[in-house]
Design a protein that fits this description.
The protein is an all-alpha fold. Helix content is 73%, strand content 0%. The chain is built from 8 helices and no strands. Helix 1 crosses helix 3. The two termini are 25 Å apart.
Length: 169
């Protein structure tokens, strides 16, 4: 599309949803947070349709807007209310939630397949870190290995996971 054409929200969604989801997931590491941020981003586009008419790159605009929303998400996380306080928000269903859910499940499936292919020690360290949220020093103590070994194993595991996620298929 040329820079002067008007985009529809459906075209913008189709063209950029997956790319924005992956970019947000890299930073937030929470499918729920990613869905919230992207939901807000696309709602903002609906509220300000003139954005889709402007000269320049809608892609650049979306990524810049995503960046600001991720920063806001980090700020809100510091003072986030308890989950039971926002049950009304959890009950809302957005038109994008089913797509986001499919993408999330697909990504989670690919990640777990890769985790299961990891060497046993790497897998154990990765799961203690990411699933059980243990800090590196506790993992090292628990497994009686050096802190540097833990860091190296997590780094290697994350590279493997990122490779799987960056292969968009």
């Amino acid at each position: 599309m040329s820079n002067k054409e008007k985009y529809t929200i459906a075209e913008v969604y189709e063209l950029y949803w997956k790319e924005l989801y992956i970019a947000a997931y890299r930073r937030l590491q929470s499918p729920a947070d990613v869905e919230d941020v992207l939901h807000d981003l696309f709602l903002a586009l609906l509220r300000t349709p003139e954005v889709m008419e402007r000269d320049g790159s809608i892609r650049a605009y979306l990524h810049q807007s995503l960046k600001h929303r991720i920063i806001d998400n980090y700020r809100k996380a510091r003072v986030r209310p308890r989950p039971e306080d926002d049950t009304a928000m959890q009950e809302e269903v957005s038109p994008m939630s089913s797509d986001a859910s499919l993408i999330t499940r697909d990504m989670e499936k690919r990640v777990m397949e890769e985790v299961n292919r990891m060497p046993e020690k790497m897998k154990e360290i990765y799961l203690l870190s990411r699933r059980d949220h243990l800090p590196n020093n506790q993992i090292a103590h628990h497994l009686n290995i050096s802190l540097q070994t833990v860091k190296n194993q997590i780094s290697s595991a994350l590279k493997r996971v990122k490779t799987v996620l960056s292969n968009n298929g």
